[in-house]
Amino acid sequence: MVHGIGPACDLRFRSIIQCVNDFRSASLSLLASHYKRAQQEGKIGRVEFLPVNWHSALHGDATGVDEDIQRITLPSISRLRHFTNDTLLDLFFYNSPTYCQTIVDTVASEIDSLHTLFKKRHPDFNGAVSVVGHSLGSLILFDMLTNQKTDSDSDSEAEGIPADKPLQLSCNTLEQTLSRLGLQQYLDILHKENLDLESLALCQDSDLKDLGIPLGPRKKILNYIKRKLLLQNCKTGAERQREGLQVPPQKMPNDQEGDQCSGLSSQPSQFHRTQSVTSAVDYNYFDVGIGQVSIAYPQLAFHPQTFFAFGSPIGMFLTVRGLKHIDPSYSFPTCKSFYNIYHPYDPVAYRIEPMIVTEVDVEPMLIPHHKGRKRMHLELKDSLTRMGMDLKNNVWGSLRTAWQSFARPVAALPPVVEKETAAKRDTEEPQEVCEAESPVAIEQTEQPEIKMGMLNGGRRIDFVLQEKPIESFNEYLFAIQSHLCYWESEDTALLLLKEIYDKLGVPVEQPQ
């Protein structure tokens, strides 16, 4: 479970660990009430929820960003400015190519470390692993999962380097590179292994560790070479653009000119972009064409089963990046299920389905209450809505009948024929009223089934929580709290359990 901006996850300034503990407690309670029989029969085990913290790595001493920001921060309203620097600036850090790389690397490293440690402590575990992202954490996971590679990809593509492109760096010699980094003492070790810049760029952290190079110098070397390669590739793309080699906004399957800046993917872009009205930026050189800053996305050590997004701004960020439409055939390379879960009053949450199905206005799926029914105030609201619609239709039908009777012309016919015509008209008028009401009923009963694409295997993606009765009185008053409600929401926890256990063929039980 990956947190969003800031070190705290709720209004009580609790950490991600404390919030995940609450979510775990809600899950265990629902397991005892909704899966009691399956648990007693040994068909299922419990679901473990593990927190992923990336905020401390970004704001720690390694980056020094807090010290740099503090030097330029005004002394007035210090508490508010401290809150801004510690929380809201994470959004700007993620859109920075420098700190975005730090965030993504930290998230991937923490996820892999937790997965490795869990497998070590539970060697018999053979279950699936899913990922959860809240707020900005969901956007981080979305970009990361978009840039994952399948097992069939080559090793060079998995490292984010094109296999047919020679590696070049701005520095001419290995000595110059190490001198620039202040690591001249490790030159003899690299020379002993016959390593030059080209072969050093192919090394991983484990390779340098085997050579006896400490963690700090390893990170400096790998990060420096990675950035230099990315910068060179970006300059190459910019030169091609200046020469007039423009890539169309919507990439065709056979178009090979849209290689991304970092070379992380050669697959056709399935995100369709709107025409730009600002300065010309070739987003197709970026990773998978999603408009994110050009960084090297790490590869997870496992393939996630499902991706759950809580209060996610993914839809907004994709739109701001210039993406207008997501191809219905698109799916994550290594994750086949995706759920966008949000509270109706969450000011940060945005929908995904309208970017896939643009021609039809589709309501989101309502998440059932964990006690098995709709909340009473929502049922009352639906009943009043239906009553109002019925009353409106009845009044409209009565007015229509009265107007037709008033506007009916008087025909100069014999009395017998007039009676027959009047009787015939009386039998036809209800049919006209019924025909006037029939399109609504036909539209409701004959609405075609909507295909939501393959991002969630053809199933629905957007799921909305039911607001509480007190929240319906003033939606603005509970807006901030609604963005933080997911950690203690039993309805959200039950939806996760249903998705996980349904794949095992275990149905949910009605609570007693």
Task: Report on this structure.
With 512 residues, this protein is mainly α. Among the domains are: 16-150 and 309-376 and 456-503, no CATH class; 174-232, Transcription Factor, Ets-1 (DNA polymerase, domain 1). The protein is 46% helix and 5% strand. The chain has 19 helices and 7 strands. It has a 5-stranded parallel sheet with strand order 1-3-5-7-6, with helices on one face. The chain is globular. The protein starts with 15 loop residues before the first helix and ends in a 10-residue tail after the last helix. The model is unreliable at 154-171, 237-266, 276-288 and 429-447 (pLDDT under 50).
Structure summarized in a few sentences:
This protein has 512 residues and is mostly helical. It has helices at residues 16-34, 36-40, 55-58, 65-72, 78-94, 97-121, 136-146, 155-158, 174-181, 187-192, 197-201, 205-210, 215-242, 314-320, 353-356, 376-406, 415-445, 479-483, 490-502, and strands at residues 131-134, 271-273, 307-310, 323-326, 338-342, 365-366, 462-464. α1 crosses α19 (490-502) and α16 (376-406) packs antiparallel against α17 (415-445).
What descriptors fit this protein?
single chain, 512 residues, mainly alpha, DNA polymerase, domain 1, five-stranded parallel beta sheet, two-stranded antiparallel sheet, 19 helices, 46% helix, globular, phospholipase activity
